[in-house]
DNA sequence: GTCTATAGCGGGATAGAC
DNA sequence: GTCTATCCCGCTATAGAC
């Protein structure tokens, strides 16, 4: 705690950032520092795919995503991850060099899944789609990963601001990409006259994303099936944005 | 970490809960457990108000609210609070019996400020106001406390889910009250035909609140003055909800 | 690969001086 | 009222057996 009072430095923190730079160095950082063991390519025991080692690694990441979601960065203990992943805490060090590297990979995977899923959904849209079609498609896709597919995604988005600088920096690149995507969607909407001109574009974009990002906090399958929830979101956004 | 996978138990966790009970035992819990020192009523030194002791206590709470906002529950260290409040960590124990009691009071004060501010705003509305007028008034008021007035408010709302059970339970009462308020606002809107009937009322309410609750994550005075931001929010909600 | 045991440190809390 | 010194526990990380 060195910084004084006030608000966090970088403005569009967390998911959508305003910086337009969309640097291309993609596979920048995986768990840096020598990975210690990492399972051998060939699994002598079972003739199956990746061997159980890879699966264990994934169990650890899955568990970490869940814990991160519930307890936040500082509250994510190796012991909790281990319990969920059904092993002892020190075993984690066979797969990752440190606690932070586990968390790092969770948030990186999470954000990339969001990006990939939303891009894929947009790409699948028919050619004649309007700007608003594309925005609503992104709304659906964002809710789908965050609520249905990926605990990683919501962990990455909702706890981004808490992360220590080293992890945060790696994240920032992908955050900017995702922010840029949404900014483009909205700009296109404004240009096409499909979005009301009396809205502040940045604020409108962030209110929409905020509504979506907050959903993991309250949504559950039983209370209302996902399709219904998504359709309410789409109606809200459609009517909210259009002139 | 004992609970298995899945989602958090209580559904409408965090701010708006669905339970309709609006129990009336208001001043239920202040920091329980004997308060240790607590400044003497009469300040012998200065002829002024509450004496500096009360001010120190407040500095501690102010600092705790800021730290809680940035680092989450588990990341809120007494040393960080102390640094911001400009004293040494052990001095906190003169005013509070434990770290959790500090946090407890922050979130309690925070949520009550939200409740008080929104209620006051609604009460100040002219008599002929429509249901939608009232909803938009609540939107403005919620953004005002969360963005302008109170670091306590956003700390209480955004980190509610991370809190350990004992603190959470106390919070829950006020959360339910606030949730009930919004539910009523929306039900009135539906009843008056001012809200589209093709929206799932609960989802719509939570999406709106989510948009507002997420705002502290991205808003800052420089990027766009508060009144403009609020007015964009009001337009979004107005158009989003109405038939 | 996964375990038990343990080193080492950070952070909450207490004692007691001033 | 606020400080310094200190206790002690919990957590990350390492050592080394199996």
Automatic annotation (TrEMBL), chains A, B:
Signal peptide: none annotated. SUPFAM superfamilies: Homeodomain-like, Tetracyclin repressor-like, C-terminal domain. Residues 1-55 are annotated as: Disordered. The keyword Coiled coil does not apply. Gene3D superfamilies: Homeodomain-like, Tetracycline Repressor, domain 2. InterPro entries: Homeodomain-like_sf (IPR009057), HTH-type_TetR-like_transc_reg (IPR050109), HTH_TetR (IPR001647), KstR2_TetR_C (IPR041490), Tet_transcr_reg_TetR-rel_C_sf (IPR036271). Residues 54-114 form the HTH tetR-type domain. Keywords: DNA-binding, Transcription, Transcription regulation. Pfam families: TetR_C_24, TetR_N. Residues 42-55 have a biased composition (Basic and acidic residues). It comes from the Bacteria. Residues 77-96 bind DNA. This is TetR/AcrR family transcriptional regulator. It comes from Pseudonocardia hispaniensis. The lineage of its organism: Bacteria, Bacillati, Actinomycetota, Actinomycetes, Pseudonocardiales.
